[in-house]
Amino acid sequence: MAPARWFPAPACALLLLLLPLARAATPAKSPSSSSSSAVFQLNGDVYPTGHYYVTMNIGDPAKPYFLDIDTGSDLTWLQCDAPCQSCNKVPHPLYKPTKNKLVPCAASICTTLHSAQSPNKKCAVPQQCDYQIKYTDSASSLGVLVTDNFTLPLRNSSSVRPSFTFGCGYDQQVGKNGVVQATTDGLLGLGKGSVSLVSQLKVLGITKNVLGHCLSTNGGGFLFFGDNVVPTSRATWVPMVRSTSGNYYSPGSGTLYFDRRSLGVKPMEVVFDSGSTYTYFAAQPYQATVSALKAGLSKSLQQVSDPSLPLCWKGQKVFKSVSDVKNDFKSLFLSFVKNSVLEIPPENYLIVTKNGNACLGILDGSAAKLTFNIIGDITMQDQLIIYDNERGQLGWIRGSCSRSTKSIMSSFP
Ligand SMILES: *[C@@H]1O[C@H](CO)[C@@H](O)[C@H](O)[C@H]1NC(C)=O
Ligand SMILES: *[C@@H]1O[C@H](CO)[C@@H](O)[C@H](O)[C@H]1NC(C)=O
Q1: Nearest atom (ligand 1) to Cα of 160
Q2: Backbone angles phi, psi at 234, to 5 degrees
Q3: What percent of the chain has pLDDT over 90?
Q4: Looking at the chain, which terminus has fewer C-beta neighbours within 10 angstroms, N or C?
Q5: Residues of the signal sequence (predicted)?
Q6: What separation in Å is there between the alpha carbon of 149 and the centre of ligand 2?
Q7: Weakest mean pLDDT among 19-33, 52-66, 198-212, 305-319
Q8: Whose CA is nearest to atom 13 of ligand 1?
Q9: Structural domains of the chain in order of their starting residue, each with its CATH number
Q10: What pTM, to 2 d.p., does this model score?
Q11: φ, ψ of residue 15 in degrees (nearest 5)
């Protein structure tokens, strides 16, 4: 398990606060009512895959790449044959850039990226823009920025091939516990910063800066960009706050309840991060959660050690899925401003492992050296989670994400 694998370390998060850039370089078409929406199918799951990913078709001719969707960082990158110095084994042949795809040092997107680094980074040569990102589990990617076209499936069944800027990563280091066989070719950066894919699509006048995902507990789901898929009226909305931990999507501080009783821990600031498989709580809320869970458990469950996660239980019979065990557990709740509540039922904090044990998918963030609380994939499953950067708010609607995209769209009216 690689904790918070793709979550940028706070020190390097600065690097991703790339603000007012491409707008100047790319004359924006008037962002108008003609903005459309795009929808991608997702693959992957919380367990055993550990992430959800899209297939993006990039280049000319277009070739497919699996990208881990990450709302906790901004820069998209692919493992890349530039040539590659250190790459993992990836599912597809490495992306191979041509010289005319390189983003030059003088490009505004490069200047912004570099000025956010301290000490200010300079280009080694004027023809290219170097980048380096580190994530909280000490994984990293080093490379150069390139611009290439990709296929964007519009909701009305047509598609466009806009260009976007991303990292061509020729030197990847995995975290200490990292695996060398990767299940994805790279990462899709969907954070708030201006290098994020959604920010780039907004500048191009293609979609509004709104995205959302629906991650199924059965695996798969969908990801969308744009604002005319969003069923605004049914969502629970919370204003995004400026997170104290960085430029992350945060609904602010929530009060934690278990089985409708306050756990008596001080309100905790959380961030929504689809790049984190599991949920991470700081030491105090973590301990309070574990104590409350254990106190409420029936005698038929016994704590057991399982290689998958730190805290697991076995039952009298082997569990096949979370539905076999969820009645033994109660819901957690996080209550934000205006009594907006995020319910966390057992399905959103337990997994059942290959060994038939149930394990807690909320982890102790202090053990992973995290200084803030992360709501990861496990807790966002079977909800439409909406990140509305236009109106500065986060929303959620509970519903199954396992059906086809079309039927899901019509069931979130
Ligand atoms: C789909 O939407 C785009 C952008 O709004 C538009 O240009 C295109 O003509 C539409 N295609 C179809 C088949 O309706
Ligand atoms: C690639 O993107 C550029 C800029 O968005 C555009 O002008 C060009 O037509 C695109 N190429 C293809 C093959 O669609």
Answers
A1: 3
A2: -90, -10
A3: 69
A4: C
A5: 1-24
A6: 6
A7: 19-33
A8: 158
A9: 38-225 (2.40.70.10), 236-410 (2.40.70.10)
A10: 0.89
A11: -55, -25
Q: Is residue 97 scored above 80 in pLDDT? A: yes
Q: What are phi and psi of 254, to 5 degrees?
A: -120, 155
Find the 200 Cα to ligand 2 centroid distance in Å.
Answer: 14
Question: Is 314's pLDDT higher than 90?
Answer: yes
Residue 186 pLDDT exceeds 80: yes
Which neighbouring-strand residues pair with 239?
A: 393
Q: Tell me, in angstroms, the distance from the centre of ligand 2 to residue 91's CA.
A: 26
> For residue 174, what are its two tokens?
């995995």
